[in-house]
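Lab manual, section 2.4: Encoding a predicted structure.

Procedure: take the sequence of the chain (132 residues), apply the prediction step described in section 2.3, and record the output as structure tokens. A sample record is shown.
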Amino acid sequence: MVNPTGTRSGWLTLVVLLVWLAALATPPVFLARWRTTRLAELSNPAVQANWTEFRDAMRTQTDRSGPVQRKVPKSAEPPELVWLRDYFWLAVAAWLVLGGVLGGFLALVVLGVASGPGAAGPKPRPPGTEPA
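Recorded output:
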């Protein structure tokens, strides 16, 4: 079947594909750059001392009776450090899977809308109007 829109549809497909790939790749790249900076900052002993001080303060507040019961964080390291060091690639994989599926579906919708009503093929004829 001949495409009624000509090469415009091919260009549109290419542009939508490039935008989709850029939307998938850009956040993990920026997150990786930010990660290296933050890991260097979080390796500072003062950050660990602040976290230990916070945990100690929480430990003293758990002994008090009151309407709010505080829990001491279990991790001996700051949560941001643990997340960036141990779970970074899980976050990137989740972004690629979820962003890929949702972005891919959106790309298909955009391409379907842009292709127009004639792209699905010839319209069926009403009964009784068949050619002789």
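Check your result against the sample. Residues 8-42 form the longest helix (35 residues).
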